[in-house]
Design goal:
The chain contains three helices and two strands; from the N terminus they run ααββα. By secondary structure, it is mainly alpha-helical. The chain has a two-stranded antiparallel sheet with strand order 1-2. The longest helix has 25 residues.
């Protein structure tokens, strides 16, 4: 799962600890769902692998005439997984 800053836990307040735990669980579930939608090979991948391949990417955002464009790296090995995730998320 994801690392939580040690300065936040335990806070001494049950509600704050519960909020951090809830956020960590939501983050984990969203990461697993993204991996499942992106590529079948990522179904059993660790969280660090998922972050490296489809979350932490060196991309550039640009806007022109109210349209935002994401410029991904050329020859990026996980381009197909990113495209599959994008299509699944934006499906109507």
């Amino acid at each position: 799962m994801y690392e939580i800053e040690p300065t936040h836990l335990p806070s001494g307040q049950f509600a704050a600890n519960a909020a951090w735990l809830t956020l960590a669980a939501i983050t984990h579930n969203l990461t697993r769902a993204a991996a499942t939608l992106a590529a079948p090979a990522l179904n059993s991948a660790r969280a660090a692998t998922i972050r490296t391949r489809i979350i932490n990417i060196a991309a550039r955002l640009s806007s022109h005439t109210r349209a935002i464009t994401l410029h991904l790296p050329q020859q990026w090995p996980w381009q197909q997984a990113w495209d599959d995730l994008s299509i699944a998320v934006h499906a109507t």
